[in-house]
Design a protein that fits this description.
The structure is a homodimer. The N and C termini of chain A lie far apart (47 Å). By secondary structure, the first copy, chain A, is an alpha+beta fold. The longest helix of chain A is centred in the last third of the chain and has 18 residues. The relative contact order of chain A is 0.12. Chain A is globular and about 75 Å long. In chain A, helix 14 runs antiparallel to helix 17, helix 20 packs antiparallel against helix 21 and helix 22 crosses helix 23. Chain A contains 23 helices and 19 strands. In chain A, the strands form four sheets. In chain A, strands 12, 13, 14, 15, 16, 17, 18 and 19 form an eight-stranded antiparallel beta sheet that branches. A five-stranded antiparallel beta sheet of chain A has the order 5-6-10-8-9. The interface between A and B is large, with 92 and 92 residues.
């Protein structure tokens, strides 16, 4: 606190009380805080027509203790059975722990927690510690028809773990988080699905010390939620990390896997590639717990060579030029940068302000050279891989950026971005304390559809007055990229917010974007999936669901839209 | 002919008679011939205990005309309906054309044709010319329950197109072979599934002239069968080209696709990546005609830059060192060579003889330096991609090869290999005229399993006396590679041959290899699929089949093992 020259709101700066709603909704480390700098604060007041007075009184903060008042509806004999499987201490039925595993980190979760809304929680939480235990649990629940939900990192933004139908939730992060096998010859690691991102990366970075390996490795998968997400969630949601342009999405990283399903164990073969029918791995990846529980997972790993990393950043005169350069780079066949992040004009403006570039000497140089505010676009990134491979890539992309009129901005802005790459989510709670909502939605598009989708979505978002809408691509391919929209809204009611979000999904479908590039579908976006992929394709997913889970006990209540109504699209 | 100093067998040197069995079994261009050089001829006589006398009389050559004597069992009203859809001239019922679309190029096909065995042919062949026609045909056949088979290039080695249950066969190569759309911005091309490899590549190489493009492109997919295979076959069998280490397998190249199925049209979205549930593309790829007919297919294309290609070849002291180097290269993170071909000692020996290296000065240098015959291993390859990316790759892999004791052999051996890369199949017919069978089987393995699979398979093949067994890896990944076995056998009866082939598949399963890396499964390997992937995984494929094709009209008769018995494994 206290870095402001003028009035400074009392931004959150204390760990939430133990057992409180706030302790569930708060992102990450209870003792870590992040809030807008004075420039950003001033900017928000302007956009949202707010004054310092609006930042003097806080909205509901969720500091209240979660009351232990929601009865468990499971019969005692079932609980007893579960206790036999996982041990007495690993079955919990208190409201707090049940709530904690059901809500994720999307805005509607946070809003409900602030307002002390407890709904859709499982009847019990189990903390299994082995594959066999999970298999026994799934078999028992199949027999008795008890719904099963799963949690690993808990950072879903699609209501992925929400226990709509009650039953049990498996909290895999607690005891099911071990390395099963490290195979240096194949460059693979097999882990339990509750393994957390940082723990996996620690094992790999310290492979000589911890795994008896010759070299050091990296998992290559770093979503923004990295510090509070887990392997299970990465895989079943078909996620991507911020370095996916080089390392690939999780479906490119998974080599083989094992699921406990109601119809038995699905275990895929450990082959680098194959031509033996439909790809079973690609059927299970993206199944979001609706077909079975991911238990063991074998991932490709990569050499850990941060010393080879080449940082760069550029400013482009326009969004059109930035897109053209990104396309040329991705089609250039000299490899792909690892972090590859191109911001549109509005996001560029916010970032330059955030990184304190606005008003500086470099800002003046940019302006003098014709890179105008609200036209110019920032491109950040770095390379990964072998040293000379990285060097060559930096040279080649430099040439392409120059061709499209970009100015080199040194490595600094990317290094600034890197510092905050995993902790931006911390900024959401202090802002929401004063009624300002930050949320994100993302999609994927081909290059030729990108301008249309970007324009269409911005038009929709901006049709709501006083809304900040920042967009970037952060996962880039020769055939297109994702578009990631970050929007800031003040003073919105929950229902109104959900309707706004629904409109974004309607517009994705309208403009022909895939409704998710890496967040998955979950229960939040489920009602749009059939619209997005078409009914004949959707029927395939329905058929698979019926095959694996005829009694609808695996993550029921709308996952992938499987047991809810399709929403009628507003914008067709 | 006549290049031999000693006795020269009368190798095939005349185009097969029109309408003959030979005209169907002969590979490729009727006017092109290839036969063993004298060194190879001498080598074979030695291995097979044969004399010149054994090469004086030919076995059945299949020169007889295919008699037009197999009645069409389809009702005239159905034929009339098909004629209405595709036009009078595009429905054929003569035996020759029906036989031609049913048999492929695996050894048992060639043996049957030489012996004038006509079985499992469709009742009619249709030559559709549009997606709509195919959709109408599938709808009609669904209604009437008429089996449908498909042919594009016709080079299956898995009995993929064999019309076991009669019905109709769609010969897609004839009229369904056009470019639908070329999208230079997205670097994609959409084609009809009967498009042939060379025709696709011609369009892309000449994109400025033929498609109005700015640049030249390549499809990046060059199986050995390239000249006589088609896009449809590549996709539905989940194939790989010889340049797959750089360009990827076909499942990496397909962006989206459209199928006519009994339950309607499946059309996937054109996105570079997505997180919207199980991957529908990866369900349809590898379905081998058992779910529906692939109509339109959108493929990624790549910049055509042959001028950047860096050729190389090395000799390694041992198979162990060659494997270690291949692994280090593929895990080196400086990109992947495009052609990446490592031969085991026996194949190296045959190749050095074939390329006339044996006995030369370079052979003596190799021997003096300790690269011993039947121990040393040949590594051939070239790079593709941007110029300096290629340069760096060649430098980096050179260093790795040196580390493992390899000697550089110049670009020449790879250029020799390149000349013959698509025409090796031509050598099979002249050899078979004298009772010598060349056939190939391939699989995929992880690095740590490779020595075991290689040793185990060689042991099995060599347990048959007088058998040549050459092995190479030709598709290499950070986690493993394929193993491609080429074997030469003399004087074997068809039944004995099939039993021998079955033993190879048994051993793949026994040693834990995927039973196919790029040939697919078809009807020949179908009975092993459930053994290979496990029953729980196999049930998923069964469920998908039941969903798409409840009446079993799509490529019925054992495709993917769907409607035949599993074989009991001999070697468990």
């Amino acid at each position: 606190m206290g870095k402001y020259k003028g009035f400074c709101p009392e931004w959150e700066n204390e760990a939430p009380p133990k057992g409180s709603f706030r302790s569930i909704l708060k992102w990450g480390d209870p003792e870590f805080f992040k809030y807008p700098n004075e420039g950003m604060y001033t900017y928000m007041k302007k956009v949202f027509n707010m004054t310092d007075d609006d930042f003097k009184e806080k909205k509901p903060e969720g500091l209240e203790t979660v009351p232990d008042n929601v009865p468990c509806r499971l019969d005692e004999n079932h609980l007893e059975h579960f206790r036999k499987i996982v041990g007495e201490a690993n079955v919990k039925t208190d409201t707090y722990n049940r709530l904690r595993v059901s809500y994720g980190k999307t805005m509607i979760d946070l809003i409900r927690l602030r307002n002390q809304v407890v709904e859709n929680i499982p009847d019990a939480v189990l903390y299994p510690s082995s594959k066999t235990q999970i298999e026994e649990i799934v078999a028992y629940c199949t027999e008795i028809k008890i719904p099963i939900y799963c949690r690993a990192g808990g950072s879903t933004v699609t209501r992925g773990m929400e226990a709509i139908k009650g039953g049990i939730s498996l909290d895999l992060a607690v005891n099911f988080n071990k390395v099963i096998e490290f195979n240096e010859k194949n460059q693979t690691i097999t882990v339990e699905s509750g393994m957390s991102g940082p723990e996996l990366e620690r094992y790999l970075n310290q492979a000589p010390e911890l795994l008896g390996a010759k070299g050091r490795y990296t998992c290559g998968h770093f979503p923004q939620s990295f510090e509070y997400s887990g392997v299970g969630g990465w895989v079943v949601t078909r996620g991507a990390g911020q370095n996916s342009s080089y390392y690939g999405k999780i479906e490119d990283i998974v080599i083989c896997q094992e699921y406990a399903t109601p119809v038995g164990i699905v275990k895929t073969g450990e082959y680098p590639a194959k031509a033996i029918g439909p790809d079973i791995d690609q059927i299970m990846i993206g199944s979001e717990g609706a077909f079975g529980v991911l238990t063991h997972c074998t991932l490709r790993v990569f050499k850990h060579m941060p010393e080879n990393r080449k940082y760069f950043s550029y400013i482009f005169p326009s969004w059109e030029n930035a897109q053209a350069a990104a396309r040329d780079i991705s089609q250039g066949e000299f490899g792909m940068p690892s972090v590859f992040r191109v911001s549109d004009p509005e996001e560029t403006s916010v970032m330059l302000s955030h990184y304190k570039v606005e008003g500086t000497k470099i800002d003046k140089i940019m302006s003098r050279r014709g890179y105008k505010a609200m036209e110019r676009c920032l491109f950040l990134g770095f390379t990964d891989g072998e040293k000379d491979f990285c060097k060559n890539m930096k040279r080649k992309l430099h040439k392409i950026c120059k061709k499209y009129g970009a100015m080199y901005l040194t490595a600094q802005p990317t290094k600034e971005w890197e510092k905050g790459r995993f902790n931006d989510p911390y900024i959401r709670e202090p802002m929401q304390d004063f009624g300002i909502i930050i949320d994100t939605m993302e999609c994927s598009v081909s290059w030729d559809e990108m301008p249309k989708v970007h324009r269409g979505l911005r038009e929709y978002v901006k049709s709501r007055p006083n809304t900040i809408c920042m967009t970037h691509m952060s996962h880039v391919y020769p055939q297109g990229a994702n578009l990631y929209f970050i929007f800031l809204i003040a003073n919105v009611e929950p229902e109104e917010y959900l309707e706004f979000q629904a409109g974004i999904l309607d517009n994705y479908v309208k403009y022909g974007a895939a409704i998710s590039h890496h967040h998955g579908v979950g229960k939040a976006f489920g009602p749009w999936l059939e619209h997005n992929i078409g009914s004949t394709s959707y029927e395939i997913i329905r058929t698979l669901k019926e095959h694996f889970d005829p009694d609808n006990i695996m993550n029921p209540g709308g996952t992938l839209g499987l047991d809810v109504e399709r929403r009628e699209l507003k914008f067709k």
